[in-house]
Amino acid sequence: MRAGLVSAAAVAARPAALTRCARRRHCTDAEWAAYVAAQGGNRRYQLMQLRFRRQFVDRWPTLGDWFAAPLIERVGRLRGESFHRPSYPASFRARTYLIYLGLGGHATFDYPWLFAPGQLPIVEPAEALGIDLGAKELVDEATALGFNRNSARQAMHWSVSRIALHTGIFDVTAITNEHIIEVLEAIRHFAEHPNLERFYPSPQCYRDGAAKNWITHLHQLQVVLYHRGQITEQPRKLMPGWKPPLVLHPTMQAAADKWLVARRLTDRPSTVEKLELALRRFGDWLAEHHPAVDTFADVTRDHCLAWIEHIAEEPTERTGKPLGVISRIQRISGLAQFFRDTAAWHWDDVPGHSLLGAGDAPRAPAKVPRFIPDDELDRLMPVIEEISCPFQRAALLVARWSGARRDEIRHLPMDCLDRYPDGTGRLR
Fold first, then answer.
1. Residues 147-166: b if buried by 16+ CB within 10 A, e if exposed
2. Are 54 and 33 in contact (CB under 8 A)?
3. Residue 239 pLDDT more than 60?
4. Which one of 189, 207, 265, 285 counts the least CB within 10 Å of its CB?
5. Taking a C-beta distance cutoff of 8 angstroms, is the pair 170, 224 a contact?
């Protein structure tokens, strides 16, 4: 059992998750008027909220028809538009009312509508209705696990509120890993939505900005639920990367796909990712500088050397600087591996011999050993001793006294810790 605040028995005994609303319906005039009055504020604001709902209901007397409308009409305000002049004012001005319908159990919402506006205040209206989404406890647990409190607050508020409005689940203990995976899939699919650029500048801006932040939010939620014992699937260590599919000339694509399939039989997934990246960058360069080359059999050593020179000098989009030495070594060795393997396997449509050698890659920089100075250790060790989780404390002590790397510590058996006769700790 992992360290946490919820036992396995408590998780097994938790109430069944609420089913998603089968019907979407407006609330009554009296119900909405009572809610607006309870929120306080000046009379002008209250009348405005009543008017916005009335305009929305007049436009969509059957709520199901609003859900069937195009996304741009349901969102209302598109990218670059003023708050005062949205394209579809009835939907835009009724967002407060729509959130109330979701929190009140009158409707659940699709993820594209929850993603497109960017910002939707949900937690505060929930608290005003006396609904506890469980975000505060999640934030406290995330902070105890080492997350920054402000970051954890944003992550938990965004995650649990979107899951609640989509599923109708307002009990955080009913959230499963399947719910989180559903949100992750929705985030990725939204990048391909035909109207995405009506809300974000470009698919790449969406992936690098909003989507990246949301995936990070969901990862934090996964970590907290995993340490609670609420989900059993261990969260990914690395955020899944965004990348377009490998696209080459059909003849080259067939050879590349066949080679990558063969490498997956023996190599780690991370290694195959690096090999694919090498082919991707080389293929992109060939298509730009030598478009007449449509098969790997026509690739020469001169092409390869020109590409090596290119990646050593061309600034990258991410940093504005050329690739570092380690990255260039990985790209060159990956391409060289492709030529060696396909030559040894006597494939068609390939050069049939190696075009690159070990001397074509730059020399790897010498690594200087690093250590923690005594004055920093003196500040670190008392804090380690105060950690309540015995597993975290043991792992840090092993790292301190053995010099083992993180992955080496992760694979140690549970009974590896022992002591010498004088009480000094040691590893078996």
1. beeeebbbbbbbbbbbbbbb
2. no
3. no
4. 265
5. no
Cα separation, 379 vs 385, whole angstroms: 11
Encode burial over 365-377: b for 16+ CB neighbours within 10 A, e otherwise: eeeeeeeeeeeee
* Fold of the CATH domain 250-360: DNA polymerase; domain 1 (1.10.150)
If phi > 0 it is left, if psi is from -120 to 50 it is alpha, else beta; for residue 175 that is beta
Q: What is the dihedral of CA 318, 214, 64, 54, to 10 degrees?
A: -100
**Angle at 142 (CA atoms; ends 139, 147), nearest 5 degrees:** 110
Nearest to 153 by CA among 133, 125, 180, 173: 133
d(CA 108, CA 18): 12
In order of 8, 116, 206, 220, the CA distances from 187 in angstroms are 31, 10, 10, 16
Q: Is 59 helix (H, G, I), strand (E, B) or coil?
A: helix
390 to 3, 4, 39, 395: CA distances (angstroms): 9, 12, 47, 8
**Residues 6+ away with beta carbon under 8 Å from 350:** 255, 296, 297, 339, 342, 343
d(CA 87, CA 89): 6
Domain ranges of the chain: 8-228, 250-360, 374-427
- Residue 82: left if φ>0, alpha if ψ -120 to 50, beta else—which one? beta
SS3 357: coil
Amino acid identity, position 265: L
Q: Residue 93 in contact with residue 55, Cβ under 8 Å?
A: yes
Query: How does pLDDT run across 59-117, given as a tens digit for each residue?
Result: 999 999 999 999 999 999 999 888 889 999 999 999 999 999 999 999 999 999 999 98
User: Rg of the chain over CA atoms, in angstroms?
Assistant: 28
CB 272 within 8 A of CB 326: no
What number of residues does the chain have?
428
Decide: 329 and 361 in contact? Cβ < 8 Å: yes
CA 242 from chain centre, in angstroms, equals: 9
d(Cα 191, Cα 59) in Å, to the nearest integer?
30
Q: Say whether pTM exceeds 0.85.
A: no
